[in-house]
Structures are given as structure tokens and as C-alpha cells.
Amino acid sequence: MFAGKMRLTTFLTALVVGGVCGVAGFAFATYTMEPAPPPQATLSLTPVAPVPAEPTPTAAVDAVPEVPPAAAAAAPTAHGTREIDITVFSYVGRDIGSDKLKDVSKGKPFKVNVYQDPGSPTANRVKVDLDRDEKWDEKFTFKDGTITRDVAPADDEAYTVSYRWDGKEWVAGG
Fold first, then answer.
1. Which of 70, 105, 146, 162 could form a disulfide with 131, with the two C-beta atoms 3.0–4.6 Å apart?
2. Using one digit for the tens of pLDDT, what is the confidence trace for 76-124?
3. What is the DSSP string of the chain?
4. What is the C-alpha separation between 94 and 92, in angstroms, rounded?
């Protein structure tokens, strides 16, 4: 007799069934959790004087040109960064845990993929598709504390314009 009146086979069956249920429960809990959102980028910004309010236009609303969402996301803010830059900067110095994160900007008018090449301890490249047409418009490189941005102005993945981030704004000539 083992463990009172319980048979050895009954005990082992209960042990195996309990173990399988525990492993299945752990796997379910692990795969159904949502990943934590990326940390917000912290930028050292100098105070900017408030912009005086413009008078309300008297022209018809139809006369005001509409700004496409991709252009709005690519337009610099008062402190020199764009919405895209803030998304990209949130991955500087961060280990992404794999070689690639696809579309970290879901729901935005632009697409951002983040890359961590073999041997690099943190993310070191980012590609941006401003209009989600499956052609990369910009690529960013993080190397030795420098952030460079190469731009394909013709939306053809031919990067002909380069910039370097100086801590406050993009400077031509990467």
C-alpha cells in the first residue's frame, strides 16, 4: 500500500494530470498577456515661448486645405521633433529582445519597424514608412551615441538625404 489506501497508479495519474494542467495554465497565462507599452522618450527640451493665437479665419471652411495624416506626423513640432521621432527615440538604447519588431506604430498613419542586429546589445536601426505604401521612406541608425536619419525623398527607398540629431533638432549632413 502507498499513501494510505490510494494505489500507486492512481497517485501517479493524479500527479501527471495536475502537472499537465499546471503547465497548460502557465502557458495560457503567458501567451495571453499583452506586452508592456514602450517607454516614453525623454527629451531635454528648452522652454519655448507661447505662440500667440491667430485670428479666426473668416473664409469658408472648405477653403482651408486639409493636411494628410502622414504629413502631419512628419511635421516638426515646436521643439523640433516629430511624432515619428518620438516613437523612434523610445527605442534608443533599448534591448528589444529579438532581431526585429514589426509595426510598433499600429494605428498611426506611419509604420515603424525596429531592428537589433546580431552582436548589438540594443536596437540599432529603425525603418519608417510614412504613408504605409510598403516602401521605406526613412531609416534611422543608432551608433556610438549618434542618431542619424537617411531620407528617400522620392519614396523609392533610395536614401539621398542625411541628417544627424544634435539633441535638439535634425542637422543636415548626417
1. 70
2. 444 467 899 999 999 999 999 999 999 999 999 999 999 999 999 999 9
3. --STT--HHHHHHHHHHHHHHHHHHHHHHHHHSPPPPPPPP-------PPPPPPPPP-S-GGGSPPPPHHHHHHS--TTS--HHHHHHHTTTT---SSSEE--TTTTSSSEEEEE--TT-SS--EEEEETT-SSS--EEEEEETTEEEEEE-TTSSS---EEEEE-SSSEEE--
4. 5
